[in-house]
Amino acid sequence: MSFIRSYAPRATFRQLGHSPLDNDALRALAPSIFAEDKHESRSERYAYIPTSAVLDGMREQGFVPVFAKQGKSRIEGKAEYTKHMIRFRRVDETQKLPQLGGLYPEVAIINSHDGTSAYKVIGGVLRLRCLNGLLVSDRELSSVTVHHKGDVAGQVIEGSFRVLEDSRRALDVAEAWSGITLDHDEQQIMAEAAHLIRFGDSEGNIATPIKPETMLRPRRREDFGQDLWTIGNVIQENAIRGGLTGRGRDANNRPRKTTSREVKGIDADVKINRALWLLNERMAELKG
Q1: Strand 132-135 relative to strand 119-127, pairing
Q2: Local structure of residue 227 (DSSP, 8 states)
Q3: How far apart are alpha carbons 238 and 236 in whole angstroms?
Q4: Which of 37, 46, 116, 197 is 20 to 30 A distant from 102 in Cα terms?
Q5: In this predicted model, what pLDDT tens digit does every residue of 84-93 receive, in sequence order?
Q6: Rounded Cα–Cα distance for residues 64 and 106 (Å)
Q7: 63: CB partners within 8 A, 6+ apart
Q8: HEC per residue, 65-114
């Protein structure tokens, strides 16, 4: 199945995750996937293994790309080689949980052609209700790192099958979390921890006027719930999608409205997703 030819990533964001993407759509979302060589900063010892070749191999094995994005670079000419992520789903994948918003197990592959990343294969789940792509924590679910040498495509594909099994097991975890009810104080604890994860600096300081309780605001009627799975998804979507507002004062003490931005950086996306997944795990353990 082919995706639309004329592609505007921001305008059609909510369509991502529903349909397989063809190369034109992927090139519009993340052109660095199709870099024809390594960046000039790499030495001769750096083996250039194009993501496009891995993409072809994944398709041959029944994995279809459903989402892609790439990072930015302030260095002129480096944007075409920068870090990128592709999320895949098995074309024959039927295991999903409609009652939890339509969950599908997925595999995310991260790479770059400028030496900033080896190939990483990470398990995840996609929630069709809001198209949240959650990346799962390393603690119980595996990820695979493949360096730029040897049979990279073969190793990535092998790792993808292994990680996909972990993603399928994550559906059982999600179903269990849907049966755990959180009271008001527990929800506030989740919000405060997520607020620090999203807005805290390396020292744990938070400067934004956006309040922790805004992390708990659902964006759709179906997400009004008191269970851990629903609360965790609301928090994750608010953290990643942005759009949260708060009122503070600027340097001249004048009232100023602040709105959080969408998390576009791949490293930040992975870090926040995994931290929030771990937060959910810890809350589930405390609830017994």
Answers
A1: antiparallel
A2: B
A3: 5
A4: 197
A5: 999 998 887 7
A6: 10
A7: 88, 89, 90, 91, 107, 157, 160
A8: EEEEEECCCCCCCCHHHCCEEEEEEECCCCCCEHHHCCEEEEEEEEECCC
Task: Using the structure block, give the residue that is written with the tokens 């993603």.
Answer: 167
pLDDT of the residue at 153: 85
Q: Cβ distance 69 to 30 under 8 Å?
A: yes
Count of Cβ atoms closer than 10 Å to residue 123 Cβ: 27
For a pLDDT cut of 90, what percent of the chain falls above it? 39
Counting residues of the chain whose pLDDT is more than 70, the rounded percentage is 78
Give the 3-state secondary structure of 164-221.
HHHHHHHHHHHHHHCCCECCHHHHHHHHHHHHHHHHCCCCCCCCCCCCHHHHHCCCCH
Biggest alpha carbon distance in the chain?
Answer: 59
More confident residue, 281 or 101: 281
Is-contact 218 169, C-beta < 8 A?
A: no
- Decide: 87 and 58 in contact? Cβ < 8 Å: no
Sketch the domain layout of the chain as residue ranges. Answer: 13-171, 184-287
In this prediction, residue 222 carries a pLDDT of 86
Residue 74 has pLDDT above 80, yes or no: no
